[in-house]
Amino acid sequence: MKRVREATGWVTGTGWPAVTGWLGTAWRPVWRVAGPVLTTVSGFGWGVLVATVAALVAGAVLGWRELLVVGFVLLAALLIAVGFALGRSAYAVTLDLALNRVVVGEKAVGRIAVANTSQRTLLPARIELPVGSSFASFHLPRLAPGAEHDDLFGIPTHRRAVIIVGPVRSVRGDPLGLLRREIRWTDPRELFVHPKTISLGGSSSGFLRDLEGIESRVLSENDVSFHALREYVPGDDRRYIHWKTSARTGKLMVRQFEETRRSHLAVALSTNRSDYVDDDEFELAVSICGSLGVQALIEERDLTVLTQKDTLHTETGRRLLDDLSGVEQSDRRESIVQLAKTTGTAVPNASVAFLLFGGQVTPSQLQAASVHIPLGVRVIAVAARPGSAMSLRQIGDTTLLSVGELTDFPLALRRANS
């Protein structure tokens, strides 16, 4: 029994890894040569190849001429398909996008230019361009040496997304689809379809400016907001000794200050699918998030934007909108309460926190969420409800704005500030 265990241990610990390692080393050069050939055959082509061999073998063994005829016909089709797939291509391919970033609904246009860099005429071919989850196909005509052909194409931008355009590839193959030979010519390009945003210059700028310099409850040794006087203790800065009071009391008294808070905007966007009635609510919430973030960055305010999954880049408005282009709803059951808790932990020094969600969040959930935001931080909740009338109400210390259109948001923000 002991020898069996030792043998088993050697096989699993030493023998099998050695064998698999050797096979992998031996297979790599074989695949390097055979791989491009084998991958050229389509699934349908493999089926025809198997049927060809089976028909020829069965016809020869059984003496059925009909099967031999079928086998030779299929073999002829395969040989003809090889002729379609053979040939060398010498293209110089350029993929250009007129704009790398557009807003939802704006026109996005691209161009493919293909030039023949060889000294011989190239036969017609097909060019494929993957665009997101689909692809476009272009007919490439016969090209003389040095000739160039270009095609313009449009990209749908009816919804927010990060669209991968490319790589451009040429395709050679037979009409039956037995063989398909692809050659990649360019690298893929990214097209960012940004959410719609609206300028908040006339409504939020005063709101954010009012947040600048709000006194916190944290005492400081030096600041601009005077709080009280206290007795001097060794180590205090003597510049803050209040000499009149010290002379009157006979003790050294120093000024005590309250810290003033630099306005820091925290925007928490819920990506929980259960917080929204439909996709339109989520898109409106994303647009509100982008509008707030861009305005804060224009005014050079500190900004943090979070979702249940990530903290978005806020170095510039472009980086923020790029990230928002790729934000998607999730089925992860992290509620608005958990998002608020994450926000309070990640940005405890925020001046104001915006919670953005859809019409499925209840007032009781909102009350439970606001508990996790630190004291002294103003909480403004924004419910995206397309088609509904704009409204404002107080739920405890939280201001709840209901917004039906993106154009309503500046006015709603102005009312929240009044």
Account of the protein in words:
- The protein is of the alpha/beta class.
- It folds into 4 domains: 2-85, no CATH class; 91-194, Immunoglobulins (Immunoglobulin-like); 216-260, no CATH class; 263-417, Rossmann fold.
- 36% of the residues lie in helices and 29% in strands.
- It has helices at residues 2-38, 43-62, 65-85, 204-211, 243-249, 279-298, 317-325, 336-346, 363-370, 409-417, and strands spanning 91-97, 101-103, 108-116, 125-131, 134-140, 148-155, 161-165, 169-173, 180-184, 189-194, 214-220, 225-231, 253-261, 264-269, 302-306, 352-357, 378-384, 391-395, 398-403.
- It has a 6-stranded mixed β-sheet with strand order 15-14-16-17-19-18, with helices on both faces.
- Helix 9 (363-370) links the parallel strand 16 (352-357) and strand 17.
- The chain starts with a helix and ends with a helix.
- Mean pLDDT is 82; it is low at 30-35 and 210-224.
